[in-house]
Amino acid sequence: MEPIKKGLSHEIHEVVTKEKSASHLGSGLLDVYSTPSMIALMEKTSFLCIDQYLSREESSVGGALNIRHLRPTAIGKSVRCKSTITETTGKKVVFEVEVYEGEKCIGKGSHVRFIIDKSAFMEML
pLDDT of 77-113, one tens digit each? Predict the structure, then answer.
């Protein structure tokens, strides 16, 4: 594993589709970007932020998420997630996550991931 440093960040863009809507996922009745889809984008962005620094035997798993979904986003709009490392302690990595539609912040919070040995983790099943 290479050193994972505070301040590293990663961004991902995606288009809000019907499959990512609250009505499609069952988290609500409206055709708007769902909170579960936004959370998945936050986790994916954080995962990709550190994945390149891990060995082939390692990966990372989500451990905690504390977010706020601030505004609705219509189907067809583009959103951008930025994940920035704010803390590293041993195998624990803490991220600040923010999602934007254009210049409007639609969601933000923090996410914790833990670096794991893939084989040892799967043996826990």
Answer: 999 999 999 999 999 999 999 999 999 999 999 999 9
- Name the β-bridge partners of 2: none
Q: Which residue is listed with tokens 């983790």? A: 121
pLDDT tens profile 58-70: 999 999 999 999 9
Contact status, residue 95 vs residue 48, Cβ threshold 8 Å: no
Q: What are the C-alpha distances in Å from 84 to residues 2, 22, 104?
A: 17, 27, 18
**What one-letter code names the amino acid at 35?**
T
What the chain holds in terms of domains, given with CATH numbers, is 9-123 (3.10.129.10)
